[in-house]
Automatic annotation (TrEMBL):
Name the record gives this protein: Probable 2-(5''-triphosphoribosyl)-3'-dephosphocoenzyme-A synthase
Xref: InterPro entries: CitG, TriPribosyl-deP-CoA_syn
Function: Involved in the formation of 2-(5''-phosphoribosyl)-3'-dephosphocoenzyme-A, the prosthetic group of the acyl-carrier protein of the malonate decarboxylase.
Sorted UniProt keywords: ATP-binding, Glycosyltransferase, Nucleotide-binding, Transferase
Reactions catalysed according to its record: 3'-dephospho-CoA + ATP = 2'-(5''-triphospho-alpha-D-ribosyl)-3'-dephospho-CoA + adenine
GO molecular function: glycosyltransferase activity; triphosphoribosyl-dephospho-CoA synthase activity
Gene: mdcB
The EC number(s) this enzyme carries: 2.4.2.52
Highest taxon in the source lineage: Bacteria
Species of the source: Azospirillum oleiclasticum
Similarity section: Belongs to the CitG/MdcB family.
Cited Pfam families: CitG (PF01874)
TM ranges: none
Taxon lineage: Bacteria, Pseudomonadati, Pseudomonadota, Alphaproteobacteria, Rhodospirillales
């Protein structure tokens, strides 16, 4: 048990697949960071639309979160309710901010992948991506929506101003952007011959085209969100990563986002959740 688990209730759950869950989550966060071109976001190539963080911030954050996903899987296996999961998540957020010097790298991922890790623990071996997403909705969805969040967050400001749904609604609905958009896009690209890293680019664009991303609304307002979704849909309509010249087109979208300071952070989390579910399914 790690220090993060001190926030959890004392439970003696059955033997869980915690190590496998932890490994899959780390692979997913690193895979998301490595994915490029990923318009507006930080990668090993550049910092996209961000002045306060770079790839090193994300690597520090991943290390700072060590043990968190294992603990969420163990808590899920022990039948933890939302309040217990949330306590573990809040401690992980503190660890993330300590690791990055106060920069929000993975708040959304702590939340989304944390819930999915708990579902993986609860379901045990063999549950597929759709089942895990549905389990989050079924078991914790109502409590997720009922929870009082941080009233000062960017997400809260966007909710107040535009009435837009955000990370909570996505989780409570069983991650529809993952199951209906990003995951099918990744699988279709792989079936047609794309390698896993290129399929991740396709999954990312599919998410941007579909998601009401509170980060895009926060930085760019309704116009920024519309621009981002239309640019992503245009890339996919032109054949996405399966069409010749795709890399240059994706790069042009990236540059357009950077020029407008747009950052689709919600889609970064959707991609990480997708890669997490795929890594878990691979074992
Ligand atoms: C439920 C919480 C996640 C709180 O959410 P809330 O809506 O109140 O607001 P935010 O603090 O703004 O965080 C929401 C993050 O979720 C991601 N996101 C956005 N839209 C969606 C969406 N439609 N669907 C899914 N996910 C979405 C997004 O995360 C990424 O962006 C982060 C960078 O954000 P920010 O710092 O605001 O933006 P910048 O542009 O960088 O800021 P400036 O430079 O302009 O200043 C990055 O971290 C990505 O991860 C949103 O940020 C949650 O906080 C909560 O309740 N947590 C509880 C603890 C927990 O996790 N418990 C465990 C599970 S129960
Ligand atoms: N790669 C990334 N760049 C910017 N914000 C993010 N939030 C989560 N992953 C991110």
């Amino acid at each position: 048990m790690t220090a993060l688990a001190l926030a959890a209730p004392a439970v003696d759950g059955p033997a869980v697949n915690g190590r496998r869950v932890e490994r899959a989550a780390r692979l997913a966060l690193l895979g998301e960071l490595a994915c490029f071109p990923k318009p507006g976001l930080v990668s090993f190539v550049d910092a996209g639309s961000h002045a306060d963080m770079d790839a090193t911030s994300f690597l520090r954050s991943v290390i700072g979160l060590s043990g968190y996903f294992h603990d969420m899987a163990a808590a899920g296996a022990a039948g933890a309710g939302f309040a217990a999961l949330n306590r573990i998540g809040r401690v992980a957020e503190v660890a993330m901010f300590r690791a990055t010097g106060g920069v929000n790298t993975h708040r959304g991922a702590v939340f989304a992948l944390g819930l999915l890790a708990a579902a993986a623990g609860a379901a045990g071996e063999g549950a597929g991506p759709d089942e895990l997403c549905a389990l989050v909705a079924e078991r914790w969805g109502a409590a997720v929506l009922a929870a009082r969040g941080d009233e000062q967050s960017h997400g809260a400001a966007v909710r107040k101003r535009y009435g837009a749904p955000g990370a909570r609604e996505e989780a409570a609905a069983g991650f529809p952007t993952v199951t209906r958009h990003a995951l099918p896009a990744w699988r279709a690209a792989r079936r047609k011959g794309a390698d896993p890293a290129t399929a991740a680019v396709q999954a990312f664009f599919a998410s941007v085209a579909a998601l009401e991303d509170t980060n895009l609304l926060h930085r760019g307002g309704v116009e920024g969100l519309a621009h981002a979704r239309a640019a992503a849909a245009g890339f996919l309509d032109a054949g996405g990563v399966l069409a010749p010249g795709w890399h240059a087109r994706a790069l042009a979208v990236h540059r357009g986002f950077v020029a407008r300071r747009l950052s689709p952070g919600g889609s970064a989390d959707i991609l990480a959740a997708t890669l997490f579910l795929l890594a878990l399914a691979e074992g």
